[in-house]
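Let us begin with a simple case.
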Amino acid sequence: MALNKSMHARNRYKDKPPDFASLASKYPEFQRHVQVGLSGRVSVNFKDPEAVRALTCTLLKEDFGLQIDIPLERLIPTVPLRLNYIHWVEDLMAMQDPAGKASVVWGIDIGTGASCIYPLLGATLNGWHFIATEVDDVCFSYAKKNVEQNDLSDLIKVVKVPQKTLLLDALEQESEVIYDFCMCNPPFFANQLEAKGVNSRNPRRPPPSSVNTGGITEIMAEGGELEFVKRIIHDSLQLKKRLRWYSCMLGKKCSLAPLKEELRIHGVPKVTHTEFCQGRTMRWALAWSFYENVKVPSPPSKKRKLEKPRKPITFLVLASTMKELAIKASSMGLDASEGTAAVAAWIKKILSDLKVRYKCLPCEKDEVSLFLTALENSWIHLRRKKRERVRQLRELPRASVDFLQAPEEKENPRKDASETTECEENEAGNTEGGPLELESPEGDCPNSSSPVLEGDSQACPEESGKARQPAVALESSEEASGAKESKAFGPASQAAETGQRGSVLNEWFLFKCVLNVKREGEDFLVEMHWVEGQNRDLMNQLCTYLKNQIFRLVGT
């Protein structure tokens, strides 16, 4: 009984489901339908109409003192579900203004059925007065008999009405009575195919766990429950304040939205809905009122499942592997001592090569924490991409040497050759001697310095001089004009810069995650925690790539 915890709070079966063994020992007619498994568990076959009828009659007799008879060819109600509806109507009545409450509560049950279960429960539990309407001859006779044999004729009046009669014709004789509510369990289906679940039931859902014994007028109507309830709505638009609350139970959740929209179109001021849960069965109910002074109970809140915290993706770097990484880092001039710093230094270098942005986060001692932002998938099929680039370079057409040489170079070959040699030596020396910077463009690590490429500042004397003279002049002119503009349009320019920064911050990305490197015993653990993004598998791929690259470094 998966949904029993969502039953109405006052439903007696919510925390104490029926004890089949105890009921079987008291009622021999119910005992015949009880099955005992090998483990001693007592159960009832809900596919058997006689077993369902025996259970309903036994529960009504045991818990409410009601004696009823139901034919097998008519709808056999389940008591816990009907009790949910009664308790919800009690809630609607409790929300009324105390000054407007009547000493006697009158209700209408549209299509009461052979069991007449709603009027019997309402009269027994609360002393309500009912008018119970019915169009089927068999159901009418059984309903009247059930009322009489329980001595409730002074509270319940069963009325036979013509086909397609809902509220208007039933209330012609009672023109002066103001009813407190109406309730209805409408026919759910439009035809026999729907009743059998064809094209009306999700194929992924399991088949119904109980049998459907309803007659044609009880389970089918023209247009199904949607059109049936719309007819009740149209009757209510004429009756309006003759009833304080109009209500209907629904078998399909998809019917709820169009019916609420229908009420909105007609300007009905008070509308609410709820859910009925019992076993594996869900039902919905809709209620509306034309009284402005009634309080509307809140609909059930959507209970979303709390998302379980996902475990991070991890891999372990052994102490021996870390020592090899530290040796390679020192040989390449990386600023990394042993421990987490050595592992983190190589991870930063790999991330920089992949163009994955990262920022250093505050963390504990002997731990490194990075916030990663991946803008493109640069780690998948990396070898294939390199081979493709090499192939494209090979296929490029090559020009002749004579065509590439300029006339000026032909006039002064020695001078150009010496200058070119001197420039190449400077560039080679600066490149080999300069430290390898590992931080990303947006790295915010403490004590980090911005990358400085000395080779760019030491160019050939003559060429750099010629190239920089107009550049300096241009920069000075731009600074002067920029200063004037900043004085005149300072706030506007600042706003533009702020807008540009905001657009950068809101740029597109693949995913974001947090990477932690921390000590675990003598070894080092690398964790990657998902934050947000398109696909968590992308973070798995990046983690696998980092692990393979680190182990490949040690292997080479």
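The second case is a distinct protein. As before, the sequence precedes its structure tokens.
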Amino acid sequence: MVKKYVLVSGGVISGIGKGIIASSTGLLLKTMGLKVTSIKIDPYLNIDAGTLSPLDHGEVFVLNDGGEVDLDLGNYERYLDVTLTRSNNITTGKIYRDVIERERKGDYLGKTVQVVPHITDAIQDWVERVATIPVDDSGEEPDVCIIELGGTVGDIESAPFVEAMRQFQFRVGHENFALIHVSLVPTIGSVGEQKTKPTQASIRDLRGLGLSPDLIACRCEKTGLDEGIQSKISMFCHVQPNQVLAVRDCNSVYHVPELLKDQGLIDFLWKRLNIEKTIRITEPLRQKGTDMWKKWNELTTSQERLHDTVTIVLVGKYTNLQDSYASVVKALEHASLNCRKKLIMKWVEASDLEPETRIANPVKYHEAWQDLCSAQGILVPGGFGNRGVEGKIAAAKWAREQKVPYLGICLGLQIAVIEFARNVCGMTDANSIELDENTPTPVVVYMPEISKTHLGGTMRLGARPTEFQAGTENSAIRKLYGGGSTVLERHRHRYEINPELIEKFEAKGLKFVGKDETGERMEIVELADHPYFLGVQYHPEYLTRPLKPSAPFMGLILAASGDLKSHLASL
């Protein structure tokens, strides 16, 4: 089967938007009826992203198979509506581990194992193998594989991957391999003049490494590329003017596919990869793609016309880098769009809500509480460690007492239960084992099967079923999920609610409406006599889609807008 590969590389600076351009390219090809998969290459030595700090690398995204991967795979899944595997995220650590294990087994017996050819061959073999894995409902091999090369061209750590891709273009053939290079065209000085030298230098570096771009995606400010800049980049970078794309800043990343399509990206790749003559596209897939593009356009158009607002406050500990909560933000956006509301997000650092901040920085303390008190909905996402926990507990207390819609995710569920135990059940010293190993009232305990010595890849990870309990037919979250008895959601945690205390909590009105298949592990908690007070042990944000928003987030937005009761009545 002929397979097409589109490599997306980046130059000048990191964080330039390769992931969005790769996702948008995949989306556009899928709207033409092609089956598309994606691979993200991360040049770091970690085996996976599981032990990386969110403040250093952004959110850790979790896949169905339990893979802890780069947040860009979340973009791929959301844009392409596919289900990827841990193998779709390649790291230097994975490649070297693979090669070293093979060397120890004797696969290279008698040979000196080197970066070239052994590491570069391992990279190419991995890409070819993963590109054949079905990722959508069809169960068929993808037609196109989008490969995003993380980092910046010229980085020492990415050199083996660049060399592997140089070789790969010849392995698969010229008409089966295309390269999009994302570069920056900065605006300098008070006159606002755009400069092409960084892009020229980046392309020169790329060519020096043996790769020639087919398309140059130029990131620039809202006005796009100035007159003459496109032709200048074309002349100095050895491409036609139509191969230079202006990727300006948009009001929303959902407009980027349309921006690329208007500049002829699909037409160019169609000819460059000879898709018409080498890939057979069935009529049902072509129609499905057309319908997908129509819905996407409706989504982006409606976003521009929204006037009614809904204000959600996110209380977290990694708010200095908003990418730490990338999927949470996307889930809120998707739910808001579906409810036809314009989302206003406010970020509150959890520690700013604590009494210590009132003494150390009273202005910051009062601003944080003002934001919290004015919120229509409060969200406490996942996290690890002690910092900011008491602030999150204060936020949960405010939401419960003031009847403000609340959604707690993972740690957010545990926070809600700790707060309830302290202030409703009279367990004033209630706490989590994670936060205080010697707490006399452990409301949250270590899961018995979890390793206490190894932190990488040892949590309860991946897609697992949650079963709604008998008598929960009127539960708001169950109705939002469609009324079924089971839901499948992705998990990432090593602590759980202490099952020995469940009866005491439920007697006071905190209902555990969802449990795991054994009935021992608490998954969903709802508070009786509250507009919307929900905690989930799993991470529903990992499965949100622009056209299929997540049920817990839909509930939060509907409740914050005052529309939940009428919505549930209509179901």
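The longest helix spans residues 283-304. The chain has a mean pLDDT of 92.
Keep these points in mind for the review questions at the end of the chapter.
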